[in-house]
């Protein structure tokens, strides 16, 4: 079972998500929290695999909570679920370590799919968020040069894998496109994360986009 923690300051939202996710095969809601501070405590108590995280909450916001959770030795995956899809919020969440960013109007089956995929190691973004990221040529001044410099430490094959990740390809698709085994793809992904000091595949995709490789 994939253990899910719900973090939102609206109790009705949490109740709706709990009904939706507890009814899905392979998922179990193990806890709830009303803000980012409670999210950290609830994670200690329930050891979730995936946290569905709101952004704007009292006391500790979702970005701060995501950063704290992802800094742990064995961090849960975090999917941001919010109504606020500004460029700043999207990028801050992803750079804090979130593996997904969905809007609250996302259809229930898509949310269930997102939890399942993120638990399996595949990042997921809502279509609207993906379009915004693709349209953004450079995140901020100097990001292009910094991204190019960071990617210079990768081998040519690792760069190819990074580009495929930025295009949204799963490991099996990367293996087929680059004529390598899935095990080799996973080894390259692990090496990229280590060399670039990143937490997840979404951050690899961000750097590749900043470097305008994808």
Automatic annotation (TrEMBL):
InterPro entries: CheY-like_superfamily (IPR011006), NreC/VraR/RcsB-like_REC (IPR058245), Sig_transdc_resp-reg_C-effctor (IPR016032), Sig_transdc_resp-reg_receiver (IPR001789), Tscrpt_reg_LuxR_C (IPR000792), WalR-like (IPR039420). Residues 3-119 form the Response regulatory domain. SUPFAM superfamilies: C-terminal effector domain of the bipartite response regulators (SSF46894), CheY-like (SSF52172). GO terms for molecular function: DNA binding. The keyword Transcription regulation applies. The keyword DNA-binding applies. This is LuxR family two component transcriptional regulator. It comes from Actinocorallia herbida.
């Amino acid at each position: 079972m994939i253990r899910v923690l719900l973090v939102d300051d609206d109790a009705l939202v949490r109740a709706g998500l709990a009904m939706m996710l507890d009814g899905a095969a392979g998922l179990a809601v193990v806890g709830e929290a009303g803000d980012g501070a409670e999210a950290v405590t609830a994670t200690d108590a329930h050891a979730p695999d995936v946290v569905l995280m709101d952004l704007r909450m009292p006391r500790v916001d979702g970005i701060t909570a995501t950063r704290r959770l992802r800094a742990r030795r064995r961090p849960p995956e975090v999917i941001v679920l919010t109504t606020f899809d500004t460029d700043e919020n999207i990028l801050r969440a992803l750079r804090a370590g979130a593996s997904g960013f969905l809007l609250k109007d996302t259809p229930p089956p898509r949310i269930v799919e997102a939890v399942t995929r993120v638990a399996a190691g595949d990042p997921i973004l809502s279509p609207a968020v993906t379009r915004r990221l693709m349209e953004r040529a450079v995140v901020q001044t100097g990001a292009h040069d910094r991204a190019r410099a960071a990617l210079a430490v990768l081998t040519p094959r690792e760069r190819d894998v990074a580009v495929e990740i930025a295009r949204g390809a799963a490991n099996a698709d990367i293996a087929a496109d680059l004529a390598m085994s899935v095990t080799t793809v996973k080894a390259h992904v692990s090496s990229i994360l280590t060399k670039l000091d990143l937490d997840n595949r979404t951050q690899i995709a961000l750097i590749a986009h900043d470097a305008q490789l994808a």
